[in-house]
Amino acid sequence: MKLTALDYLRCIHCANPVVLEPSYVTANDSDEVMSGKLECQNCHKIYSVTNGIPRMVDASISTAADVISGDVFAHAWRAFPRIDDRYFQQFFDWIHPVAPEFVQNKIVLDAGCGKGRHINVMVQAGAKVVLAVDIGGAIDVAYENVGHLPNVHIVQGDVANLPFAPVADFAFSLGVLDHMESPADGLVSMSNKLNENGSAAIWVYGRENNGWIIAFVNPIRLAITSKLPSAAAKLVSGLMAIPVFFYSHFIAKPWKDLQKSMPALPDLFYQDYMVYISSFDFTEVHHIAHDHIVAPLANYSSKEEVNSWFEKAGLPEPILRWHNKNSWAGFSSKNSQIRQIMRERAQLQSVSQKHDAPQPG
Ligand SMILES: C[S@@+](CC[C@H](N)C(=O)[O-])C[C@H]1O[C@@H](n2cnc3c(N)ncnc32)[C@H](O)[C@@H]1O
Ligand SMILES: [Zn+2]
User: What does the alpha-carbon distance between residue 345 and residue 351 come to, in Å, rounded to a whole number?
Assistant: First the structure.
């Protein structure tokens, strides 16, 4: 924890600033606080700092399901800690119409940072400050990966009870709200940490086109694979990744290329997503399969549901984009000019790439 984190940290119970008790220990006389205690100036709640990370989750106000998700994903990120150069492009593909220039010199908030891959992307894109939380042990992996980066503040925290002042210019949450008991509460909480012109972007699994996962894969995940010990989960997901890797690289991608000269050819099963992951190496496909089978809680949400979260969060006129025909990316801003700019960018893309959304339902 950097001493400058105190400018941003707030008590999760009463939203007041916290102070660092003088007995803290730093790493090699630097300003990196490795252990210590933070105390709320108002309600005097104490939060520990251990292994360089403020621990600001309180099980009495987080849902049990979210805490369990955090524990399970901690194993997942320890099994796949690698930060890959391709995450930059993947991130901006997920959250289009947000582009790298948008985050330059901004205070950004990564709600559910996992191993910290998007914190790294934010630093590469020129963010001024990056605030990040994860509810579980993934936060230690993030700290190891990117905790050393300047102006990055990594905190163990719950998206539903964010430990920050309302200063973020831009908050994003990728693949997290869909693992929370109440995705809407997660987005409301993110919105509450934005400044008056702040913007938010999310990406979650969609319900549309995922009926087969909901009907056939989810029951197996719930009954068996989410309960496997981590070594077994890694093995099973590795075996599952082999046909997925083969299908995406050697069938879906060449088929898509063939469609360019023969447009009458029909789409293959789950084609858009499979073409999308055909640019990934086997380790990344293995990781994706692993994520899918270990999650104890996974919501597959319809366009209408995602829209309703934005409404509840007071984030108007969200731009919702059906990503790879299996997930929803949503963006909104408290600033109407930013919304307008982003809407125009989104329309340009939908004309050039035909990202047509299905009718909800
Ligand atoms: C699929 S991972 C995505 C991580 C990251 N956003 C990424 O794309 O690399 C989901 C992460 O959300 C975290 N998570 C789940 N519920 C959470 C909550 N209520 N608050 C904070 N993090 C949460 C999990 O611990 C896990 O690391
Ligand atoms: Zn307090």
Answer: 10
